[in-house]
Amino acid sequence: MSSSSSLVVPLTLWGNHAPAHCISVLYLLRDQRTLVTGSSDGQILLWDVDPNAGDQPWRMVPRHMLVGHTTPVRCIAKASSGQDCHHIVSSSDKGEMFTWDTVDGRAIESQRYAQYVHSTMQAYRAPDSPVVKLFCSGFYEEILVMEPFALTVLFQLSSRINPDWVSAFHVLRPRNRNDDVVLALTTTGTVKVWTLNGDENQDTVFENESKQIRCINAISMTCCVYNMRTVLVVCSTYWNIYDAGDFTCLLTVDCRRGERWIGGEFISAERVCAWSDEGKAYLYKLPTNCIVESKDFHNKSKISGGKSLLFCELVMDVERPLKCPPAFKYLIFSRDGKWMKYLIRGDCDGRLAVWKIPDTPDCASMQLKHETSADPISIKPVLVNSLEEIWRKVTPGPVGVLNQLDDPDDPDQSVPLTSTIFLPMQCRLVCGRDDGSIIMVPATQTIMLQLLSGRHQKFTNWPQHQVLLGHSARVNCLLYPNNDHPRYDVAHLVSGSTDFTVCLWDIYTGTLLHRFSSHAGEISNLYVPPVNCSPRIQHCICSVASDNSVALLSLKEKRCVMLASRHLFPVTTIKWRPLDDFLIVGCSDGTSYVWQMDTGHLDRVVHGSMAEEILAACDENATITLSENVGANPAMHFFRGLRHRNLAAIKLATQSGMSNLHGKSGLVEVRDKSRAFPLVINGFRTNPKDSEGHILFFDVEALIVQLLTEEYSAMTPGTMEAQGFTNQKEYEKIWALTKPASPDAVKKLSGFLNKVKDRADDKINSISSTASPETQKKLTGFMSKVKEGAEKAREEIERAKTEIEKRAGALDGETGEKNSDSVRPATLHLEINLTLEIGQLLLSMLHAWGLDKELDVLAMSKLGLLRPKVPISFGVLSKGGVMSLTLPTWYPRPDPAKPPPKELRPSHIAPNLSKEEMAREVDTYYFTALGHWEISHAITTHHLLSVIAITNTLVSVSNASFIPEQEKKRKLVRQATHGAMDLPKGSDDSFKSLQEQIKSAWSLLSTLHCLLLSGKLKNLGSKSFKKPQVELLAQRWQDRCLQVRMAAQELLVAELKNLGTKGRKHLVEAWGQYLPKYGDPPFQMSNTLVNAHNGTNGVENHPNEEEEEGEDEEIEDESNSSAVQAQRNETTAVILLGVIGALFDLEAEREGKEVALGNHLTRLTAKALMFLVLSPQSAKQQSSGSLRRAAIDLIGRGFTMWEPHLEVSKVFLGLLDMCCEADWWVPSGKYGLPLTQSGDSCRTSRHSLFSIAKVRPQVFITSVAKEIARYNNLASNAQALNVNLARHVLTRSKAEILHLIEVLIEKNRTELADLLVDVTDITLHCIDHNHLKNKPLNEIFKPISNFTQVSHCIQTRRIAVGTRTGQLAMYELRASKVQMIAAHSGQIAAVAFAPDGKNLASYSTKDNRLCFWQTSTGMFGLGNAQTKCTRTYNTPALSQAVRWNPMYSPRLLWNGTKIVTLLLPDGTEHRFNC
Q1: How is residue 186 annotated by DSSP?
Q2: Does residue 4 register a pLDDT over 50?
Q3: Between the CA of residue 929 and those of 840, 1011, 1018, 1022, 1459, what are the distances in Å?
Q4: Exposed e or buried b for every residue in 276-290, given b needs 16+ CB within 10 A?
Q5: Which of 730, 1069, 1232, 1415 fits as disulfide partner to 1427, beta carbons 3.0 to 4.6 Å?
């Protein structure tokens, strides 16, 4: 469902200096409120724009940084139409494409087209169509037409004549025509025209016209929108005006000396604006032969003499030299009924300049002034601003991770951070600095110091930091090898510097262990070799330097093992072939060097495509065993050939498909390597010259897992059973009833096998005394094998017997004592741990401070939360590691024109603060209360999920808090409770009172964020509250983490409730169109919910997150993005409509109100849920995924709603099948740690079955009984049909069914009394009949003793059951038969066999009669049993009050073999003689 099961909350500590932003492309959204700038470093900035910001025109504030591209961003275009469109598409130099939501900053879709690198993109919407299509051209021959949201190619415009790269194109709709025209110009100067009518179904569309002109390597092409006749084509040295009719050149204008044109645009029908790489723009008046309305248009006599008039220049006030060409964007839009024209420029320093282009009257007056002066008129920009300037205006400056080490008087002179590594086991942050020093600091404490207020702000020299001094210049890279593999010493830290050295440190003592001086250049990177290298290399690290050398440095021997220094160009790639002892070095010139690691010998130097194939074939994460069939991989042949100097093998490998391995590497992803840690900190900078900022990744699932693991590890199995986390003993006893348990058979088999063993010993002894040596050798070996086999068989039987006795509870006390001793904690850990510190950090930053001041006091005093002291720069993590980071220059602020409400005025501010500090406190208070929830929908959703999930976890963890004193006491009490120590008397009451206060505070905190947040924000006047997205919540309805799952369900239900009936109807209308349509089983497998269409189309996708054990991600075929998107829509639709139907429509239907789904959608939803439960085994990707678990859960919740549209029996069998897929022991619903796939599905199926059986017990009993009857018929013909009944679901799920019957008898005894025959059929199917030989049924399965209508005779092995209709069901266990006997005229209230089994008494309150029955069989027990009534007695009638009380039933007790006593509910007794 979700791309990533983990819930990660990122936030950024940016530091004092702004990140570099070399602007390469500009785009302004249609609402003129958001400016998008792409950079040469791959990042994208979103700027908030206000064209009418009072006295400051065009106020621009950078808002978000989008991190996803790894190469320069070249193209940005819109992805949707309309005034409110907020989706864009970006493309980079490597063919990476992303679709972004500019409101949330999320990446909606991502693709990589390795063979399609775009240089130009134009989004076009036909006037008669709402669909936006993306036209792309670049370093390929076609023009691609793409779908902007799925990023798939719809069709392509190709050339029949002179196919070549398209350097510029323009899409337009000519006047008085109903088709679209694509006008394009190739790099060799060929003009091509395609006509599109909107019905292009074929993959390729060829051109309609083609003409060669003298225009090479055009940069841009623009058709004049004012006349649709003239075309502006800009080349680097000139720009031309063409007639679109015959493409005749009407005008040519050369660029100035020292400049190059980079673009241009028509600002009117007779004026052109062109801009150059020097950052200047020029306004030209076209001659009359270029003006369509003029009589001289296209006049050949005027072509040679017509000249353009340069009448205006757009220049900067102070022009700085530009390191690279700037980016320009011409804007025209209507505001207040007036057309506005602007030109925006972005340069390499992140500076934006905005010029207002004069209107037509102003241009005319400028032309007149220019006639009187020689120089054109200069226009200065109306706005000049840069990211660095805006950054510096933030007061106080954005916080960094080590701000406590800066000079408070001059923070700009702080030593820049150049490298960072996080040690998750120690929770320490290690930062290398520009002066060569290395700082080690506790991560949680330094973050707390920078972001949160509290007592720690008054401490001096807190937190304690450690300084490592050993380098004399900038520290370029840091490596903690133990992070990659535990084979390295946990104390070793490696650093590389620009002083050409690599240093080995001991992080615990802070000492320099060794200095490696093997390189003659700056150390740029450090790597860890793979685990399957030779033992010597396993203790090395790999270093790369700027002198193009690579070294293997042994940390164990403390010397250089290998130095590879013959590379002529900079090293760009390091690859490994550990089984072949090869280190492959890729250089920037495309050359690959193959080195032998142990000897340091240069084995080969490979160039060209073969070098690329070698690098592509090396996967450093692949582990290949020696038994693997390596002949199937041509790359393996190639490496074997290199190693053994076998040229024939090399040629064979090349011929057999090495080229197929080229180009399969995916995009480089920003990915958390260690998902097991709740906090990971990564250094971040957009350019190598920048000082590092830091991104903090809080993994909510990992935090919850660590909290629960620490809690559960202190519990014994008995404690977990008593607190309801497990139900192992209960399932063990029921499981034992379903397995054969015959002590006699065990004894017989053991005795037989002992005899076989003794006989084999005797034979061996006799052979050794009488036979010849050869015969003795042969026969002794044979008899030894017989003896050995007998011993093994006897051991297996004893082991099986022990297991059955253990699971039946025979060894419960013994094993319980053993387990209790083994898990008792040996030591006391009383200090607050790192996990709680991380939880304190995260909850303090996510809590909605200021909405409930009383709760804020409780949170600080009882829970230990800390109030933020600055606005937090949160972020959003999308699939594939794509991030959106909020910049510290922007956060929601109160309106300065309006005073904030009284509730939002902070009362905790000290009176001695400066004006700037006071403003920051007010902004922070507003941000934590309102602004936090006005950033984006995704942030609101993720943060609310995180708060609720962690809060519920802390309540379940014995009401933990973040106050050290309280936490110490809680641990003491917990360990005393678990038997580790004794607790002093008298402290129990005070501790319980404190725990109740903490639990109440956590509950209030959870309620605020789940139910009350929206209402409180509305009361405070918030108009920009970004509500939680129901789509994201639906995708986490059955999240892998139980606490996140419960939080998502609570939030989604609360949000749907807030929508009301109309809102839910609107939601159903929006998502109902995506609901898949299924018929009845068997289902077809062609639907997109199971299989997306195959076919790569040359696309390289972002791989999904790595799957851990227990991961339950659906396997999506992302090669066809449209199918993937359809699958996501169907998934969301099924869950949303299922939740609305199960939780809201079901209640509305009971109350007689209008439902949101309607009959048609209810049926479709029920069919979709049934399909997901019963999907065939070939759809294994759906078998245990979160979507299928959601379907299982929703079927259980709304079974009454879906029942008319389900095949009930098949649904029950499907749920039972999943219940028995897991191990026989699965924890209860309170157990919070993530389970395996099958375990989680088993637990969800059990809960769903319990819900169904509780609501509809009759349907469950009758359906299962019918299936058991079919099973018995199948069993009678199993041999003829060749059916393996051991794998049948009713065979494997006996324990589960029996447990359900036990629960139903306890909960719904009255309703099951009417279905006793079916209940008995099910019970006898589940219990092995060997258990019924020595004990009656009511002792073997005690819940059946609640029914006086059931009696079991051990002597005759018969079971009698009285039914509601007055019939007796007589079960013959020996013959496995049942006989129905008409006994009474109404419901039978009690039956009882005589002790000898010869007589049976039955009593009915309907006809008030007691009957005696005698059963006889044929001679020698042959033939059918004959049961006849021997005597009948009339009994006193019971009152109606007694009859209507189902808890008191009549009973029959035999006194001997002839007299029976009738015990009535009113206390009277009556005796009868048979």
Answers
A1: E
A2: no
A3: 18, 16, 12, 10, 81
A4: bbbbbbbbbbbbebb
A5: 1415
Q: How far is CA 735 from CA 741, 1224, 1242, 1306, in A?
A: 11, 8, 16, 19
Q: What is the CA radius of gyration of the chain?
A: 40
Q: Which amino acid is residue 747, in one-letter code?
A: K
Sign of CA dihedral 834, 837, 841, 843: positive
Q: Is residue 42 within a helix (H) or strand (E), and if so which, with residue range? A: none
Average pLDDT over residues 894-898: 68
What is the pTM (predicted TM-score) of this model? 0.85
Q: Check residue 90 and give its pLDDT.
A: 95
Calculate what percentage of the chain has a pLDDT beyond 70: 80
Q: What is the pLDDT of residue 1104?
A: 37
1372: region left, alpha or beta (phi > 0 left; psi from -120 to 50 alpha): beta
SS3 449: helix
Which helix H or strand E contains 110, and what residues bound it? Answer: strand 107-113
**Nearest Cα to Cα of residue 1025 among 894, 936, 1119:** 936
- Rounded CA gap, 250 and 238, in Å? 13
Write the pLDDT tens digit of every residue in 1218-1258: 888 655 567 777 888 888 888 888 889 989 999 999 999 99
- Select from 1296, 1381, 1312 the least CA-distant residue to 1344: 1312
Q: What is the pLDDT of residues 686-705, one digit of tens each?
A: 888 888 889 999 999 999 99
Q: Which residues pair with 100 in a beta bridge?
A: 88, 107
pLDDT of res. 314: 93
- Owner of token pair 């021959």: 141
Tens-digit pLDDT profile for residues 1414-1448: 876 655 545 566 788 888 998 888 776 666 666 67
With beta carbons less than 8 A apart as the criterion, state whether 1368 and 1402 touch: yes
Residue whose structure tokens are 């996510």: 846
Residue-wise pLDDT tens digits, 969-1019? 777 776 665 544 444 555 567 778 888 889 899 999 999 999 999 989 988
Helix intervals (H) in 281-331: 300-303
d(CA 328, CA 352): 10
pLDDT digits (tens, 9 = 90+) for 934-975: 999 999 999 999 999 999 999 888 778 888 777 777 777 766
d(CA 710, CA 1457): 62
952-973 b/e (C-beta count within 10 Å ≥ 16 → b):
bbbbbbbbbbbbeebbebbbbb
- Residue 294 burial (C-beta neighbours within 10 Å; 0-12, 13-18, 19+): middle
Three-state DSSP class for residue 562 = strand
Nearest to 977 by CA among 987, 966, 965, 964: 987
1109 has pLDDT over 60: no
- What angle (nearest 5°) sits at the alpha carbon of residue 1418, between those of residues 1414 and 1420? 115
CB atoms closer than 10 angstroms to residue 608 = 10
CA distances from 577 to 291, 522, 607, 658 (A): 68, 26, 18, 16
321 preceded by cis ω (within 30°)? no
What are 82's two structure tokens? 């309309």
Predicted pLDDT at 731: 72
Structure tokens at 254: 């050369």
1368, two tokens: 């007796």
Who's near 854: CB < 8 A, 6+ residues apart?
A: none
Q: Tokens 């890279």: give the residue.
A: 477
CB 1428 within 8 A of CB 1383: no
Measured distance CA(173)–CA(990) in Å, rounded: 80
* Single-letter residue type at 567: H
Alpha-carbon distances, residue 294 vs 227, 290, 291 (angstroms): 12, 8, 5
